[in-house]
Amino acid sequence: MKSPPPADPTPAPLTEKQRARIRSLQPKQDAAAIARSMRLPLSSVEAYLDTLDPERRTRRQARLEAERAARAKRERVFKLILVASPLILLLLLEGVLRLVGFGASVPVFVADSSEGYDGLVLNRQIATRYFRTTKGASPGAYDIFRRDKPADGLRVFCLGESATAGFPYQADAASFPTLVRRRLEQLYPARPVEVVNMGVTALSSYAMTEFTDALLDQKPDAVLVYAGNNEYYGALSVGSTEGLGRHRWLVKTYLALRPWRVFQLLQRIVGGVAGALQSDDDATRGTLMSRMAGQKLITLGSPVYQAGIDVFRANLTEMVESCKAAGVPILVGNLVSIERDLPPFVSVEDAHALNPAAPELPTLPDATQAASLVAARRFADALPLWGRAVAARPGSARLTYSRAV
């Protein structure tokens, strides 16, 4: 079949013979067929047919507009299908994974009737929300509380990490939630008191933001927060092996995707590859926190250091705002960070031993003499020497710590 000549915007004049031939063919053929059979420009044939039927041009333009609209609609539908196809496939895969029982949702609280009543308790699998590869994550404390809060009950939730959970002591003996419960029981002997310990080892404030959302549904009278120890090396923290970098939005996106089974499948694949590259000794050596310390040296004032502070501030703000919106008091405690024999930071004097590229600093005579006085238990005499040493080297964590203790 021959193709019609290309349309010419300026119709060529027709001879009388050509016009007569077009009139004879017009009842049987459309303009395109006539143009092909007579080897004429389509525009010339169209222009002449329009003179024979003044309304034909209007009908033709309406038809062309309808064809363009239909073509544009088909293109939109095709693009929509093209974009939606991966999403549809993911939803189908999600449905199949749920149908076969792959993965699990990990609610913050689960049912527990071991005490003889309909109760709730912190999910023993809650750490799996936040640990992607690290083995040996703690299940947290085990404080059961009633699903239906007593009318005159006093209910307090305590959020935090291992210190809140009770480490290194037994949680039911020396943790601060236990001490709070005992004190409240003394103050309100006629009221049922529930102080729920939600401390979990090695978790960071990211987990506590989600815990806050869940506990607010349980009608708390107050929320206590003792946190901040794990903002650099806890789960999802900026310097942790379980971290996702410095960007809070990325971690929040990860947490939002975590309940999806497709995401859990990808996570299991990645975790399997990482586990295959990690020896069993490496996976269980040392404490959980020591295994999670990825970026071991975080310099005071560095971008990573500042990122940890920014994330902690943002997460605490989110928790406080959630509690305020629910009308629940929230109390945030200060950390005890200066204790004898437990320096909180690596000092600049130790940096060279840990990193040969760091400069080796000379020993300060005042610090040496002060240490000797401390060994002799002459603390009052040592204090001014520590003060001069700190003034000479204000960036030293060891000197500042030694003066304080």
Descriptive overview:
The protein has 405 residues and is α/β, with parallel strands linked by helices. Helices cover 50% and strands 8% of the residues. The strands form 2 sheets. The chain has a 4-stranded parallel sheet with strand order 5-4-6-7, with helices on both faces. α2 packs across α3 and α15 runs antiparallel to α16. 26% of the residues are buried.
Beta-strand percentage? 5-15%
Element order: H for helix, E for strand: HHHHEEEEHHHEHEHHHHHEHHHH
Largest sheet: 4 strands, parallel
**Radius of gyration over C-alpha positions, nearest whole angstrom:** 37 Å
Question: Based on helices, strands and strand pairing, what is the structural class?
Answer: alpha/beta
Strand order of the largest sheet: 5-4-6-7
State the end-to-end CA separation.
Answer: 99 Å
The quaternary structure here is single chain
Tell me roughly what share of residues is in helical segments.
Answer: 40-55%
Offer a concise description of the structure:
The protein contains 17 helices and seven strands. By secondary structure, it is of the alpha/beta class.
Keywords:
alpha/beta, 405 residues, four-stranded parallel beta sheet, elongated, three-stranded antiparallel beta sheet, single chain
Question: Strands, helices and their partners?
Answer:
Blueprint: H1 16-25, H2 31-38, H3 42-52, H4 56-99, E1 109-112, E2 119-122, E3 145-146, E4 154-160, H5 162-165, H6 171-174, H7 176-187, E5 193-199, H8 205-215, E6 222-226, H9 248-257, H10 261-276, H11 280-284, H12 288-292, H13 303-326, E7 330-332, H14 351-354, H15 365-375, H16 379-392, H17 397-404
Helix pairs in contact: 2-3, 8-13, 15-16, 16-17
